[in-house]
Amino acid sequence: MSVARFWRKIPQRYNLIGTKCETCKRHFFPPRTFCPDCRREGRIVDHKFSGKGTVVTFTIIQTAPDQFASHGPYVLAIIKLDEGPQMTTQIVCDPSEAKIGMRVRSIFRRIASDGESGIIHYGTKFAPE
Amino acid sequence: MRDVAVIGIGCTRFGEKWSESFRDLFIEAGALALEDAQLSGEKIDAMYVGNMSAGRFIEQEHIGALIADYAGMATRHIPSTRVEAACASGGLAFRQAVIAVASGMEDIVVAAGVEKMTDVEPGASTDALTGAADREWEGFVGATFPGLYAMIAKDYMHKYGMTREQLAQVAVKNHYNGARNPIAQFQQEITLDTVLRSTMVAEPLRLFDCSPITDGAAAVILAPLDRAREFTDTPIKVLATAQASDSIALHDRRDISTMDATVAAGQRAFKMAKLTHKDINMVEVHDCFSIAEICAIEDLGFCKKGTAGKFTADGETALGGKIPVNTSGGLKACGHPVGATGIKQVYEIVQQLRGTAGKRQIDGAKIGMTQNVGGTGATVAVHILGRV
Question: Of these four, A14, B28, B38, B339, which has the most CB atoms within 10 Å of its CB?
């Protein structure tokens, strides 16, 4: 991933800045700049999420892509944020601890790196609350 | 709109074809389809080719022109269009070809699909496939395709209590069918133990729940139904074509273990054909992972939500069952050259309807269906075909 492509998403990736439609109050993470419900009537503003949520489903990735290979097996999950939207993330915990319905909170972690000389991607993961 | 018929079909054997190039593959499939339709290439009016990622797999874009050129059509300047919708590229190419003929714009049209996946090492092909999901918000955080489908499986098993053994029966059944299909990548039967003891990829999915990396190409030729008998004694009519979309990311779906795009495309197809699931004699569904077949047969209406595990374990989807599913061996055993899969599904159904499916033949098959999925269900194409 190029530096510019990563850099422009830093607020979202580091600090869980998503968006909210002021017309219908629906929250979006990952952020959307167009409300699918209100369409042109929608008014989209930035929104910082609380970082609290619940595990909807998860898996333990045993065969990882190259950039993630050094992580060993890791827990990948879809979580439902308390504000409503769902997102895909890693859960930092012992794989045997992961459960559907588990409460989690956001943490700042290294996500992956583009080889030895490439940039290091940081971002949000989640941990048991 | 005009009625449309399939008048010719061709497919390479699927597999890891080290000695054959991208060009070799689609030329072989196209030539087989032309020969089957007893047609000369000069009669072709247009071509649509499904291909997901030649850019990543062989560093070649501009596939429409390349195929027309190497098929000997360059001097005739026919329109040739690449269609891309990840793993549903083939299904959408078929649909575009059907629309072209139905509209009256073109008469004789080729719908093809091709993917050459083994010219890059496995890590690179897996990464290319991840582009079928949301790269920014799924791939970035470490989601793989098996990982995404594993989360569907986890959700499904949690909600409906399907057992790991029931899920494994999908792969066992598809290998049984693949062992009876001369074009299949894997032509050997497996047991429940083969699946349950295979390497864990993403819990609960194991290696034998996953479709393989495959090279291959398939092609079919379409014509207006009222001209079809000029070319074949057994035209197969396209009774319905339907397509639907959904959120690119799995996390944005209404329900993780229901593919709403399959539900929508299935309903549209049944409505267009004025048929119900009870009229379908066999269906080719997109079993990129075993759980995908479980969801597909429910979402198309062949059994109730939450019951497909038992339905499969009871043999209802096997050859001779209530609704045979993936008589070709499916993506699991027949192989999954992504852009070609949607066309291969049509190829299999046409063989069944012609009565030429050999040891896999469903007796008295009159109407068949295909369901081709892009990503985790962001695009779905459904087609219904019938004997005339």
Answer: B339
